Amino acid sequence: MQRLQFALLASLLLLVLLLPGIRSTPTDQEVDIVHYQPEQVHLAFGERTDSEIVVTWSTRSLPPDQEVGAVSVVEYGQLVDGQVRLTQQARGTATKFVDGGHKQATQFIHRVTLRDLEPNATYSYHCGSDFGWSAIFQFRTVPSASVDWSPSLAIYGDMGNENAQSLARLQQETQRGMYDAIIHVGDFAYDMNTKNARVGDEFMRQIETVAAYLPYMVVPGNHEEKFNFSNYRARFSMPGGTENLFYSFDLGPVHFVGISTEVYYFLNYGLKSLVFQFEWLREDLAKANLPENRSKRPWIILYGHRPMYCSNENDNDCTHSETLTRVGWPFVHTFGLEPLLYEFGVDVAIWAHEHSYERLWPIYDYVVRNGTLKDSPYEDPGAPVHIVTGSAGCKEGREPFKGKIPEWSAFHSQDYGYTRLKAHNRTHIHFEQVSDDKDGAIIDDFWLVKSKHGSYRN
After folding, report:
1. Which positions fall inside the Calcineurin-like phosphoesterase domain (predicted)?
2. Is the pLDDT of residue 26 over 60?
3. For 419, which of 110, 123, 212, 389 could close a Cys bridge (C-beta 3.0–4.6 Å)?
């Protein structure tokens, strides 16, 4: 018993001696520096593609008592003789984002626009503040402010945090300088809001090794719908001021147009976005078709998440003849997009949603309208060319095809992979489909050749 009492007294004495040390341990607030550390860094084109880049990143907290802009800083500069020189500085804004899940997880989204960038230059940059900086990344500006250069892009949809089959190859190819931009055609992370947005955070960390090095352009898919697309709206920074729903940008001889197909399906959020987008799209395509613009940038490529056509074995909307995005609202057929594509001579329409790849013959209203030469269906075709590329990899796996493929489908594959686009000049554009199942082999490619551009009505 005496030994037990002595041991208890000794333990109490030791605890008393240690208390001052415990009290002197820094408080949570004092070690809060980790919450200011930038993460999820990614780039986008600004309003002027030839001279602006928007840098976006996240932090968990904002340092207290700091002036506006002091916590959202990018230090950058041109790479000179292989030397990193961060001689320029730009400041931006930080916006508080609260996820709609039960934990109401909070983070701050920082945006800084780098302006007046020199063409054909490599810039190094890091982002953050005096409370914490990111790693140093690099990006290359477009080769020329003119239209006479050949942009290369990787395009895909439906890539998740889990089973992201294409990500490793895209990381390698991006850092080798193969692309001028990436287009992700909807459906991210699966889903961004899952587990109180932790899945979205992890996905954004994953793609940083791609998106911090070149513009990562996006449109929403159905998997972004939760809480009125709040994670999607908050996390990205597309041009146009529409919270990333629809926008356009020019790259070399191509006018790219990104739209939200989801405004046709989630009418519980109201009709305003659908009507606004439709009117905006008509105006944007009309402007692109002005003679002085179409002669300068003859190619028009539109992309959105849900396809107008597909031959997959499921009950998705694109397997039905009256696809909402194609013909518009049932019965009244208002706000249909296919007539706009036809009227304004859109050359290519790129979609995702189906976890597969499919290339169509030139088509309008289920009628194949190949080029005038029998052996060259993609030379001066009489309708847009549709491509479905939603096989970058996600936890939902692959999408099967019908036993009997429709005659308007030119090629299809269930392989995981992504699409490459290169606009060689004003008359020739080339597409390739990369297979991850076949270790990066090209399983499909074709040239689209046009001696003239404009409305198919002519």
Report:
1. 153-357
2. no
3. 389
Mean pLDDT confidence for 381-401? 97
- Whole-angstrom CA distances from 85 to 75, 79, 89, 138, 279 are 9, 6, 11, 11, 45
Dihedrals phi, psi of 341, to nearest 5 degrees: -60, -40
Please tell me the least confidently modeled range out of 5-9, 60-64, 371-375.
5-9
Q: Is 80 exceeded by the pLDDT of residue 5?
A: no
Backbone angles phi, psi at 14, to 5 degrees: -65, -40
pLDDT in tens, 271-298: 999 999 999 999 999 999 999 999 999 9
Residues 199-243: pLDDT tens digits?
999 999 999 999 999 999 999 999 999 999 999 999 999 999 999
The DSSP-derived string for 403-432 is: SS--TTEEEEE---EEEEEEE-SSSEEEEE
pLDDT given for residue 378 in this prediction: 97
Smallest CA-to-CA distance from 408 within 321, 333, 337 is with 321
- State the virtual CA torsion across 41, 44, 46, 50 in degrees, nearest 10: 120
Look at residue 144 in the predicted model and tell me its pLDDT: 87
Token duo for residue 46: 């600004």
Report residue 84: phi and psi, to 5°.
-80, 125
Q: Taking each helix axis as running N to C, give the angle between helix 198-211 and helix 167-175, from 0 to 180 degrees, rounded to the nearest 10.
A: 30
Domain 148-449: which CATH number of 3.40.50.460, 3.60.21.10, 3.40.190.80, 2.40.160.40: 3.60.21.10
19, pLDDT greater than 80 = no
- Please measure the distance between the N-terminal and C-terminal CA atoms of the chain and give it in whole angstroms: 105
Unique residue bearing structure tokens 């105006």: 283
**CB neighbours of residue 180 within 10 Å:** 23
CA distances from residue 401 to 63, 107, 117, 343, 404 in whole angstroms, order as listed: 53, 41, 46, 31, 8
DSSP 346-409: --EEEE-SSSSEEEEPSEETTEE---SSTT-TTBS-SS-EEEEE--SB-TT----B-SS--TTE
